[in-house]
Write a structure and sequence with these properties.
Layout: E1 2-3, E2 12-13, H1 66-74, H2 79-98, H3 105-111, H4 116-128
Antiparallel strand pairs: 1-2
Helix pairs in contact: 2-3, 3-4
Length: 141
């Protein structure tokens, strides 16, 4: 997509989301059960500048815990992109565990095809609720 700005005569490119950014169904799901968040309020809360994205009509919102919908909305990610990033993060978490490597923010950033700052916020939120703990991965080893 080409856009023009008021001060520029030439167009600039805006990155479009690729199918890989939204094809969460093609990825294995190693994420913890949503039941682990059931009694927690604001547990996935992160700070992000800008107005949250309205996900009220998102066709995949039903697959997310309400706290995850809030997280995705805050980070301005549609549900499919959030789910894809989530699955990439837990897939990489499992790979790191299998080779005995610590799972860091940079691993999450490299695993996702989204802005590194958004990936970092997701890692922080998942870590805060304990989702990155080894105990959630043992069943997949």
């Amino acid at each position: 997509m080409k856009l023009f700005t008021a001060d520029r005569k030439e167009p600039y490119q805006v990155a479009q989301a690729s199918r890989d950014d939204k094809d969460f169904m093609a990825l294995p799901d190693y994420s913890p059960s949503l039941n682990t968040l059931s009694r927690r309020t604001n547990c996935l809360k992160v700070d992000w500048d800008g107005r949250p994205l309205d996900l009220g009509d998102d066709p995949y919102a039903y697959l997310l815990h309400p706290e995850e919908v809030t997280l995705a909305s805050t980070l301005r990610l549609d549900c499919a992109t959030y789910l894809t990033s989530k699955r990439h993060i837990f897939q990489r978490r499992l790979e790191c565990l299998r080779i005995g490597k610590e799972f860091r923010k940079t691993d999450a950033q490299k695993a996702c095809k989204i802005d590194v700052n958004k990936a970092s916020k997701i890692w922080t939120a998942f870590n805060a609720v304990g989702w990155l703990d080894e105990s959630f991965m043992r069943q997949f080893l």
